[in-house]
Prior knowledge:
Order of helices and strands: HHHHEHEEHHEHHEEHHHHEEE
Amino acid sequence: MPLRRVKVGLVFVLGVGAILIAFAAGAISWINQELHEQALSEAKAKARILLDRNIATHEYFTAQLKPSLYGIVKDLMAQGYFEPKWMSSTYAVREQQKLFQKLNPKEYYYKEVAINARSPENEADKFERKVFDKFMNDPKMEEWSGIRQLAGGPYFVLIRRSEKMSKACLRCHSDPSQAPNGLVQKYGDVRSFHRSLGELTSLASIRVPLGQAYLQANKTTQKFAIGFAAMIVAVFLMLILLNRKIFARPLQIVRHEAVEITTGNLDLGHQIQTRLPGEWEDLAVAFNTMSTELKKDRDTLQKRVEEATAALQASESRFSTLFKSSPIWMALNRFDDGTYLDANEAFSRITGFSRDEILGRTAAQIGLWDPDSDRERFVDALRSQGQFDGREAVFYDKDGKPIHTLWSARLVEIDGQQCVLN
């Protein structure tokens, strides 16, 4: 359907509907993005809380627990005593994490990342080794964070500096000969030895799952989308109803009245009586005014036509009377072939030919004109000048007697064809 034939009301409803759909799509996209951002922000907050808690445990072991217990078990340590439950903060944090995962089965992940770690559970993987190198190369770097796509989905990962080698820790991490025999027997004499004071020995790495939070964000977005869809449908239906009431019905009334007047079912001058809303009432008033003025103009024109017709008829009547009653011979011939179209009573009286005898015939055919006469000379004069006056001519009456006359003629146009009045 050509666009010019589409109803304005329909275009308006569809246009508003398209705007609402575009707005809803933009709003839903923005809401989904904001919910994802909120889920990520919450994951960051949880990661920092858990990370701070575990680093605090390290600090407690290093600064308070170990120094206090070393004085109590000094004699046992001289005999090679080693108990990781209180002597290794890394061991303690790792065991706490296992208990935490039993209590909270969500896919939270915590790891004390180290290179050449004493426990294989703490050894850095390929990705963690790259991050560890960044910390080693940049002493001012305190933490790294980002989103990783793992088998279980997206995770927020936060890695922070954790332990530096302290004087209290060097006894177990310098030379194997100085370490407790129990430690060497448990872990061997290779891994995590020959450390130096102040060396970065581990990073605290935690990752918080985002998949469930993102899924919940998407579900919430779907609810918003359903709500928006329902709202758009409701607004669309209201627009259709309003369009019918405000646009379609008033336009239909005005159009119906115009068509009825045009087809003659209603008289020109008819007035729209129905009350219309808003500006449509102004249009109805303008329509009524136009109808009234057109009726006045038509009536005036009709009166003038009647007067002109009457004047023309009177003129024709006078001309007919003069033509028929004239004492002078008068006839009307077609110019191209000379056929008689009319003649008055004087013509019949002088020539002896009745009107019926000459109509549809020429002067030569009825013997009024001598075929050998110089007829073309008169025709040429009419063609070049449109008239001539008082030229001598000889005609013959019905009995063949010559009629000497002074002949005058005029070219006139009647009903679209050239004629000769003579």
